[in-house]
Amino acid sequence: MLLRLYNPMSILSSSMFTQIPRQFYKCPLPLFTHSVQPHISTFPRHFTLSFYSNNAHTSNTEAPDDLQLHLSNSKQSPLKPGLYLVGTPIGNLEDITLRALRVLKSADVILSEDTRHSGKLLHYYNIKTPLLSYHKFNESQRAQVVLRKLQDGEIVALISDAGTPGISDPGMELAKLCADKNIPVVPIPGPSAVVTALSASGLPTNEFTFVGFLPKHSSSRRERLILSANESATQIFFIPPHKLCQFLEEAAAIFGKTRQCVMAREMTKVHEEFWHGTINEAKQAFLAHQPKGEITFLIEGKSISTEESPSESQLENELRELISEGHSLSMAVKLVASGKLMKRKAIYSLALRKFGGQVESEDD
């Protein structure tokens, strides 16, 4: 805000509103754009003159000048060498922190999952740091190259296409390698599809399980879904759009058709959508048309039951079904026990009696 003492009558008759003195341009607040309007609060002798704009100050192709000024004049101490895991926007380019921009601008190199995709973000903020591809198909080959850069004292930033590196994206192995070599790994917090979807879902947020992408193999996928279905915490999945129908079919069979769920897609983008309903309603809604964009799917946790323990025949039927699907005896016991009040030892004892096998008992 710019404060000056003026005669109210003379200021109103002057022409200063049509031309702003050049020394005002460097004033950090407010932002000046194409048109400027005065706002006057009158006092007995003096008044406050503040300027505001009726235009959006953000361009679609270029970062605001005041941001560039902030980055160039930052009084923060220089970055230390190390690996910086930088969170980037999950859709809207404005969802990035000033610290993240400073790291990306100061780094010697930026490891990027997709250099073309990340190039748009860097261009928007006028960041010239060189990019080096780093994705799931080359991370093992790149690891030693990156390690040498870090050991030579370089600042290496790692970004993914969206969100936080290492969370269902490349980065976990590199972070582990650096930790083993005593190379600093510095997290730069930023957007997360998991927390963004959960916070707006309306489902319980006090406890949740992030599952991420499900296994490709059907039996492994079923095992994971059974474990999730028996947890009381909200379950969060990443689902590719072309696999949503398959997911809903399997989830309906394992979670039940009446469990509440939320489908979040295109978050922070123009076509952002949060769909609410039961799993069965989701089947009906999305089997007919496949939604576009990355999907974060949330399912409410299992309500804590005070029902009596299942009968021996019920347990036997569940064990038989899982074993017939190819699960080992121990895995079948684990899956059956995950949603029951009974101890695993008791179920394992039943499994040995009914189905035999020379398998050592497992402890809880």
UniProtKB/TrEMBL annotation:
Mitochondrion in keyword set: no
GO terms assigned for molecular function: methyltransferase activity
GO BP, sorted A to Z: methylation; rRNA processing
InterPro entries: 4pyrrol_Mease, 4pyrrol_Methylase_sf, 4pyrrole_Mease_sub1, 4pyrrole_Mease_sub2, rRNA_ssu_MeTfrase_I, SAM_MeTrfase_RsmI_CS
Record-annotated Tetrapyrrole methylase domain positions: 83-282
Keyword Transferase: yes
UniProt superkingdom: Eukaryota
Keywords, sorted A to Z: Cytoplasm, Methyltransferase, rRNA processing, S-adenosyl-L-methionine, Transferase
Annotated transmembrane regions: none
Record's protein name: Tetrapyrrole methylase domain-containing protein
